[in-house]
Specification:
Number of domains of chain A: 2
Strand content of chain B: 5-15%
Largest sheet of chain B: 4 strands, antiparallel
CATH topology of the largest domain in chain A: Rossmann fold
Number of domains of chain B: 2
Distance between the termini of chain A: 30 Å
Order of helices and strands of chain B: HHEHEHEHEHHHH
Oligomer: heterodimer
Structural class of chain A: alpha/beta
Number of helices of chain B: 9
Mean pLDDT of chain A: 92
CATH architecture of the largest domain in chain A: 3-Layer(aba) Sandwich
CATH superfamily of the largest domain in chain A: P-loop containing nucleotide triphosphate hydrolases
Largest interface: A-B, 27 and 18 residues
Number of strands of chain B: 4
Amino acid sequence: MIRFENVTKVYARGARPALDRVTLDVERGEFVFLVGASGSGKSTFLRLVLREERASAGRVFVAGKELGQLSGWKVPALRRGIGAVFQDFRLLPNKTVFENVAFALQVIGKPRHHILSTVPDTLEMVGLAGKEKRRPHELSGGEQQRVAIARAFVNRPQILLCDEPTGNLDPTTSLGIMRLLDRINRTGTTVVMATHDDEIVDQMRKRVVELSTGELVRDQSRGVYGSDR
Amino acid sequence: MRLQFILSEIGIGLRRNVTMTISVILVTFVSLTFVGSAALLQGQIGKMKDEWYGKVEVSVFLCPETSSAPTCASGAVSDAQKDDIQAALESPEIKPYVQHVYYESQEDAYKEFQKEFKDQFWASAATVKDMNSSYRIKLTDPKQYQVVADVVSGRPGVEDVQDEQKLFDKLFLVLNRATLLAGGLALVMLLAAVLLITTTIRLSALSRRRETGIMRLVGASTTFIQLPFMLEGAIAATVGALLAVGGLWLGVQYLVTDWLGQSVQWIPYVTTQDVLTVAPLLIGVAILLAVISSIVTLSRYTKV
């Protein structure tokens, strides 16, 4: 689903590479934790998959397409197949829960009847049934993240990218979010999650990929957060 | 869904930047009023040319008894001199330029004079002897005035040669200068309008960074993201253009048709119909402004 072949990303000329000759394969339907200290290249990895950045060297494949070859006007189509969730939720404060999720479908031109049938289903799936009319500030952090996940998943993407989705949440709430991501993963969606949360990684026992100063230092199936444990 | 969504986004954008929107409307209004004025001035010139160039004549005024011009040293023009002039005008070199010639006698001129100035007290002091008899020459091509003038001027018995077109040309020069002035001001104001629209679109894009960020993330197309901003600029500019058309319409109706048209009646004036002819041009310019500003701004602020 996602393949990195010797991918290097240098932001500023002469600076240390943010990613250094990373080679990695993520299969369809896998759940992968991307771990490593701040600045290790996790976010850069996710940005490359979304084609918010282009690789300086090497090749990035997503859903069978090489992103280096992809012309600009095809990028939106690529992103429609990828959901993204962030630590800071990125919700629109003046829209309701329903409108926030519907927004993702409206802006890619989905018809109204499709939106009216899909959004409630998705909200129910993430456990927000009955809170459609709330605004983000009336929700807890965990609920806000569920809205963000609903928005990322409402178009049923093949890939879900999560950049520290539990970074702002307490452990109990985080666990709920992880159960939700696990459920989404079981529907066949490939999930790549960058995280600092060792408890979660240790509990889930999924594939763990560790980056350190841009280099891939560990790739372990059913792994834990720290390599020294 | 799409259309409704885009329209609501535009509404939000216009309301959020209401002061900027108003200033865009006003600046385009003023600049396009200047553009329109320039166009109407040119229209006015065209009308007057159409109306007058067909009628202009070269007048060869012959010496009356009282003239002090050097070519009139022998007193009033003699019949021999007249024949001479007439022959010159009918010579093969000059003939092609002349459509027809008619002779106005002193008596004819006196009647015409009394008719024209009957209300003036000094008109009664003039006598038939003071009048110029003249040849009125209608040219096939009014621009060829000089050729004809060269042949007759300076001949004995000719006091003066006058081309009516020259009088008009002075007026046209004034109007052309006014057009240039209006055009120059229009250019400055248009530049201001472009800059202002650019700033407005930029502000609007910045204040909606969060939305556009999410739009990009979920795969909205570039056109879809940029369209509301472009239309915002275009709508504001078009409203400005419509105001300009309205302003010009009122201006022409009340200043030209109702006031100038009543007080100076011998000039053919531009009408409100001409304003409507200019209107598509103004609206076109407004949309062009908005498009230019959008392209300049959006390529930088809402990149995918």
